[in-house]
Amino acid sequence: MRLTSKTAYGVQAMFDLAFHGRGRAVQARENAERQGMPLRYLEQILQDLRRAGLVEGKRGPGGGYALARPATEVRLSDVVAALDGPVEEILSWEEPAGDKRKARPRAEGTDVPTLVWRELAGQVAGLFGGVTLQDLVARAETMGVARAAGAPQMYFI
Description:
This protein has helices at about 5-20, 30-35, 40-50, 75-85, 85-90, 110-130, 135-145, and strands spanning about 55-60, 65.
């Protein structure tokens, strides 16, 4: 299985929001710089994630993007589905377009390789569904990854 760069960047961006954002909005520019990705591409990905209900955009001072749900409720499978479709479909098998070969009729349930492939796709989808953004945050904390400094506090007298 090979995920697209869009999905890889999407997972990185979501991790950044969960780890560095800590409840505040994060500017796309900051996210792109920390994660080493092109800003324009990240902005497109964030729009797809916003349409999927995974992030919220906030305008104005202190604006940017924030998680729409707690990190404990966002699974990697949600991010993959928002950007590339369900994991099971990414792993599905289709006959190549324009394949002129005629398939031999098979008795129901005798296509063992296809059955095994479907089972594996289900297991991989389960793995993606079993990992949350909070799991990534916890791993980063265990590894001692430094967090970005929070937004500067404004004091009014």
